[in-house]
Amino acid sequence: MEGNRPKRRKDKYNPYNIYEKDKHYYISFKDGQGALHKLEISRALYDTFDSFELDDLVYLNVVDRHIEQSEVWETTLNVRAIEKPESIEEVVLKKIQIEALHTAMKILPEMQRRRMQLYYFEGMTYEQIAKKEGCTKMPVKRSIEAAVERLKKELKKI
Predict the structure, then answer these.
(1) pTM above 0.85?
(2) Given a cut of 90, is residue 147 above it in pLDDT?
(3) What residue stretches are annotated with the RNA polymerase sigma-70 region domain (predicted)?
(4) Based on the domain organization, do 75 and 92 belong to the same domain?
């Protein structure tokens, strides 16, 4: 940017820049189509925009240093958390569902149970399982799909 300009934070909420060049004062901004416009402004208008920027900086510093730290409570931390903590009900329900799944898996034939374990819990692909068992991927795929259907029926009973 040309000329001298006041210090200010750069962010998406500052739609304009003010600066001084050769004892003339300017404002530059982009319009809705993205075209850059530069206009000469009076010293009074420059000072007004400058004071707005200084007021904004003061306010942002107050928020950063005081308000933000005073609101660090458990509820605010939970709101900010990337992964929300699970409620007790969710944890208990998940454990019950996992137990029901393991119980239902016990009724599956050994081969289907092993393939389900490899595919869903160990993250292997059909091809990897087939290679490990010495067959093609289609029998593995059909076996896993049949096991899933059988588990769905069993879990509906519970």
Answers:
(1) no
(2) yes
(3) 104-153
(4) no
